[in-house]
Amino acid sequence: MGLDLGLERAGFDIKLACEIDRYCRETISLNKPDIPLIGDITGYSAAQILQAAGLTGSDDIDLIVGGPPCQAFSTAGKRNGFHDQRGNVFLTYVDLVLTLKPKYFIIENVRGLLSSPMKHRPHTLRGPAYPDLALDELPGGALYFVLDTIKKAGYAYSFTLYNAAHFGTPQIRERVVIVCSRDGKRPPYLQPTHAQSNAMGLPPWRTFREATADLAEHHHIDFPEKRLIYYRMLKEGQNWRALPEDLQREALGKAFFAGGGKTGFLRRIAWDKPAPTLVTHPAMPATDLAHPEEDRPLSIEEYKRLQEFPDDWQVAGPLLEQYRQIGNAVPSSLGLAIGRLVISLLRGEPYQEPASFNYSRYRNTNDALWIQQFERMQRGRVEQQALF
User: Fold this and answer.
1) Residues of CATH 3.40.50.150 domain(s) within the chain?
2) Do the strands 174-181 and 156-163 form a parallel or antiparallel pair, or are they unpaired?
3) Catalytic machinery residues
């Protein structure tokens, strides 16, 4: 509901919510009992969705917003793209939206969408002895297919990888947001409100201290004692690398020999920076989220502040389910930025696209650069095939 809360802050009236998860549904009902709620989107036609929202075929929908299940595209773990059932939900969402024909619609997803293939070929079946990757097997093939579908339906679009910290969220959280417009005019990028280094004269990113220092009550899970031994040696902003060298291998165990930076192991959050990306469990060894000073994981109350839910927001289910729900949410301020953009476009108000603002720390993540990169890769594949 983070997106929804942000849209409401911008001035939108939510006509219908869609959620399949049991505990998320309970949470929505607890906090927004007046909003109609449907379940598995694959079980509904466009006509049934209109009926559930109290609308008719003659009503012109201003905006549809969706974050179809992102695990199929996650950069962590397997990358099955649209061959994953959750990827099929993604396509169902796009098909329904194009049938409903809103003035604007939004697709929100994880960074992995930018590089997920339409069809995954196992690495054991790649190399000189095997055929080159087909178009639908190329990195980014899933997104390219979706964008082509949107374009053929007459919609224009823009997208980039947005860091929610640029919109006032006290957390580093990156999400791909695709804004699609029925009028065929490319929508501008979202207007940032904060910056890391005083870019455009904007105020600095909000910090963990600003967001949470006044909290008095905390409900949280606990770290096992064998990890608390090491946490008691660490100061705010530090991780396992700050331990004495002779203890680093002992603290990490087998993970010590794994690749990567391992920055999430035994990690205390810094007071005066945005929090790292919230995960669905704050005490998993590789993605620890420990309080700057107290020997505990972040609390549910801190999770809510960092995702910008109201303090009185009720979260259904046992503690671990509450972490999962809030950790999977979209920060409210990102929803607010989306809402402000769309309302400006609906009203025909001038909206100045930020010039040369560095939204992301990664390369080729906006629509223009990403498409250029994908089409170069596609041409290279065709040229290579022509040599044989």
Assistant:
1) 2-205+331-386
2) antiparallel
3) 70
